[in-house]
Amino acid sequence: MTPTTDTVDRSSSASPDELAHFNRLAQQWWDSDGPFASLHAINPLRMAFVERYSDAGDSRVLDVGCGGGILAEALARSGAAVTALDLAEDVIDVARDHAPDYLDIDYQVADVTRFAPEHAEAFDVVTCMEMLEHVEEPGRIIAALAEAVRPGGHVFLSTLNRNAKSWLLGIVAAEYLLDMVPRGTHDHRQFIRPGELARMGRAAGLKPIASTGIVYNPLTREFSLHDRDLDVNYLMAFVKDS
């Protein structure tokens, strides 16, 4: 049964405005030409990065901020047993309805800061993609992710860098010129520089082991990974201290 708004405390991870924004778009999550087209386009790149540094396909995986399940389904198709969390109830309903029954995915409306203490060191791999720029205390979220992963396990994060280029490309171009992302999705003040993300990881007992950028080519309309360009969207891999 999906928890009701009376039983789920959302305040620690996302604002009501953020949740309302994504709930309004819930029914469009799996439209590969719709508001989340860019997530569909970059998902193979996210999976490639996760699989490069972990055995996610044969693991217990926690996907935090799972949205409609684009990454969770890909992880499950690779063979992982996936637990996927989000605080937007309408979005979780869409994720549950879309996932084939044969995939091993447990979708939950849950706050990771409450979930992690009850499932400490229960997962081999933890992912949190395109979520940290939507919360007020990303360091607290990262600490919860670190608590949920086993020693020697991997944590994979993605977010947006905070600089003039990311404001121009990640907000002005992506949201207002190219309509690649729904307008109002991002607040540049909440973007996170790679050095800041690495420090938050270390403070939580996670060691950064790799990073790469996700770069968009407007001529080919394709995304690619670029290890030397973390200026806008980027991914970072961590391993938990044993």
Description:
- The longest helix is centred in the N-terminal third of the chain and has 17 residues.
- The chain is of the alpha/beta class and 242 residues long.
- The N and C termini lie far apart (36 Å).
- β6 and β7 form a beta hairpin.
- The protein has a single domain, classed as Rossmann fold.
- α2 crosses α3 and α5 packs parallel to α6.
- The protein is globular.
Features:
8-stranded mixed β-sheet; 242 residues; alpha/beta; 8 helices; Rossmann fold; disordered N terminus; single chain; 8 strands
Give the secondary structure arrangement, pairings included.
Layout: H1 16-24, H2 37-53, E1 60-64, H3 70-77, E2 81-86, H4 89-98, E3 105-109, H5 112-118, E4 123-129, H6 138-148, E5 149-160, H7 164-177, H8 194-203, E6 206-217, E7 222-226, E8 233-240
Parallel strand pairs: 1-2, 1-4, 2-3, 4-5
Antiparallel strand pairs: 5-8, 6-7, 6-8
Brief rundown of the structure:
This protein has helices at residues 16-24, 37-53, 70-77, 89-98, 112-118, 138-148, 164-177, 194-203; strands spanning 60-64, 81-86, 105-109, 123-129, 149-160, 206-217, 222-226, 233-240. It is an alpha/beta fold.
